[in-house]
């Protein structure tokens, strides 16, 4: 029987690669699905977690996250739950091609959205992301108390909640996020308190080099230099 002092592990996974040949910043838009490579990433992580004591799997409502979570839930004989709080951050550039090094920052029509990088002014405030993500993690912890849970979400919210837990500033350089495709950011709770944070990349060998954490933007490949991964 679990107690309030049990260790509970909550793995927060970023979804796999998305089919997005035009390099759109897809944000919360529907109908963006995993690519074939993304499905391989999802299967790889499901295999990696197959021996773990996972009793709860929950996902963002967006298709790419649901498709990533499905093999994990299936491997453990679980129904996949959905939590709206795990959704991608809202962004005014959603639906556009907007990436590091593509000249978007030089366009006057975009300047009004860039006045405050600390909030940030172009989308959902970082503090609001922390609140909803902590709520989702706590709910997953309660659902799997004394065992393990998996939450499938998106790069920015995952990085922001990790930064908060590790007491780092929330504003940051997006190129330096340690949250590659299909990665696991793992929060260990003792009772209701987070006591450690870990990070792993079970599908690292499947991730294209230009999408690994810290990689420089690619050049000359359509869509490959965009910061659209989410």
UniProtKB/TrEMBL annotation:
Organism whose genome encodes this protein: Streptomyces monticola
Coiled coil start-end: none
Short name of any one Pfam family annotated for the protein: His_Phos_1
PANTHER family: BROAD-SPECIFICITY PHOSPHATASE YOR283W-RELATED (PTHR48100), PHOSPHOGLYCERATE MUTASE (PTHR48100:SF51)
Protein name (database record): Histidine phosphatase family protein
SUPFAM superfamilies: Phosphoglycerate mutase-like (SSF53254)
Domain of life: Bacteria
């Amino acid at each position: 029987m679990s107690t309030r002092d049990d260790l509970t592990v909550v793995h927060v996974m970023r979804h796999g690669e998305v089919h997005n040949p035009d390099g759109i910043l897809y944000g919360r838009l529907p109908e963006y699905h995993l690519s074939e490579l993304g499905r391989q990433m999802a299967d790889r992580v499901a295999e990696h977690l197959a021996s773990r004591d996972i009793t709860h799997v929950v996902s963002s409502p967006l298709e790419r996250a649901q498709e990533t979570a499905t093999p994990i839930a299936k491997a453990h004989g679980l129904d996949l739950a959905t939590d709206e709080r795990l959704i991608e951050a809202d962004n005014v550039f959603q639906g556009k091609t907007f990436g590091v090094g593509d000249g978007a920052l030089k366009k006057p029509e975009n300047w009004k959205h860039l006045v405050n990088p600390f909030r940030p002014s172009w989308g959902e405030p970082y503090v609001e992301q922390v609140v909803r993500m902590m709520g989702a993690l706590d709910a997953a912890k309660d659902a799997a108390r004394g065992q393990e849970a998996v939450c499938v979400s998106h790069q920015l919210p995952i990085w922001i909640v990790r930064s908060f837990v590790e007491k780092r500033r929330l504003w940051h350089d997006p190129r330096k996020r340690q949250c590659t495709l299909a990665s696991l950011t793992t929060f260990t709770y003792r009772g209701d308190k987070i006591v450690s944070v870990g990070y792993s990349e079970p599908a690292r060998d499947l991730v294209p080099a230009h999408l690994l954490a810290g990689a420089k933007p690619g050049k000359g490949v359509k869509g490959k230099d965009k910061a659209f991964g989410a």
